[in-house]
Amino acid sequence: MNIGELKNSVIKDIESRSQQLEELSRKIHDNPETALEEHQAAEWLSGYLEDNGFALERGICKLPTAFWGRYGKGKPTIAILAEYDALPKLGHACGHNLIATSAVAAGVASRIAVDALGGCVAVIGTPGEELTGGKAIMADRGAFDDIDAAMIVHPGGGNRVVMNTLACQTLVVEFLGKAAHSSAEPELGINALEAMIQSYNAINSLRQHIKDGARIHGVITDGGEAANIVPAHTAASFFVRAEDDDYLDVLKEKVIDCFNGAAIATGAELKYKWDDVRYAAMINNMTLARLFQDNMKTLGYDIPLRGDKIWGGSSDVGNVSRLVPTIQPLVSIAAGDVLIHTPEFAVAAKSKDSLQSMLGAAKAMTMTLIDLLSDPDNLNRAREEFGKRK
Ligand SMILES: [Zn+2]
Ligand SMILES: [Zn+2]
């Protein structure tokens, strides 16, 4: 079989499974499970892979809902990543049911390529993208050490091959003051709410002097008890994001300075904790991106490398992109005004058309895997580019 015929066979394989894949996607959508609680979805996905000849390791990296599915024995190993967590209250408003389904569709179709060309395909189940940075934890625990490249596609309101996600770390802050009657003895109180508001305003001032692409945003989660009591305790949650990991470190210090300044000004005691998990900024591998784009074009989807919008959110796919050449193209499943993480997007993530678009991307991922397994030059170029940008 030549490469063209091989690509046609994987396209047909995915089309022939359309009904099964639709049922799988709907089942995950109808039973939303939040970060690290995705027990049913993980079992449905790993079961589907196992039924189709994959060797499965479940509960890897001490995460019960993570898995590693492997087909083939040789090298290189090309990984397709699956996400399947839902958002609290909103269900599948990030469309991870579609990511999961496109991943197993591409993985199972890749068997044809592995049988013909050698190498190995891995479908790696990566839980808890939204709240816990599952891939960051898995990266630290070695889940991606044996792979040579990684691909994942994400649904959205537009099409583009390259997504710039930001480095991100979250922060929980508390101020401890001293309660007092707000009118009778205000001079005896220490106002923890003033400390929080001064911090908030200091961060507002900081924001106009930071680099493009950086983001600092937060909410006050405890603002005090009652208007006639000097607030003795306040708490807030903040996200700090930056274009690259080094600048994130710079920004983290500046943000803490804002809180320290307010602590000195008010006399309230500052307590803070950075989350253990840190989302790395995405390094998009342009060699893989162009191969994916060419394959999408063959399938009739003419999609741009980059979109109009430069900055997105943050994703733990960034942590994988620090280890191996990685891409995470965005695939349109809804009109541009249907925003991700909204109930409207959750509705869109259930439609038949959405799945068809994501299966188009699954075909292109499998065709890209064929490009990598059939011509070592492609993987070498991806590696060389990765080496330069790392
Ligand atoms: Zn999301
Ligand atoms: Zn997402």
Description:
It is a single chain. The radius of gyration is 23 Å and the shape is elongated. The chain contains 13 helices and twelve strands. It starts with a helix and ends with a helix. It has helices at residues 3-16, 18-30, 39-51, 96-117, 129-132, 134-140, 192-207, 245-266, 286-298, 317-321, 343-348, 352-374, 376-389, and strands at 55-58, 67-71, 77-82, 120-125, 149-151, 154-156, 167-176, 215-222, 233-242, 269-274, 326-327, 330-332. With 390 residues, it is of the alpha/beta class. The chain is 44% helix and 17% strand. Strands 1-2-4-3-5-11 form a six-stranded mixed sheet. It has a four-stranded antiparallel sheet with strand order 8-9-7-10, covered by helices on one side. The longest helix has 23 residues, at 352-374. Strand 3 (77-82), helix 4 (96-117) and strand 4 (120-125) form a beta-alpha-beta unit. One zinc ion (ZN) binds at residues 94, 130, 341.
Structural class category: alpha/beta
Work out the radius of gyration: 23 Å
* Spatial order of the strands forming the largest sheet: 1-2-4-3-5-11
What ions, cofactors and ligands are bound?
zinc ion
The quaternary structure here is single chain
Largest sheet: 6 strands, mixed
Record field, number of beta strands = 12
Q: SSE string, helix = H, strand = E? A: HHHEEEHEHHEEEHEEHEHHEEHHH
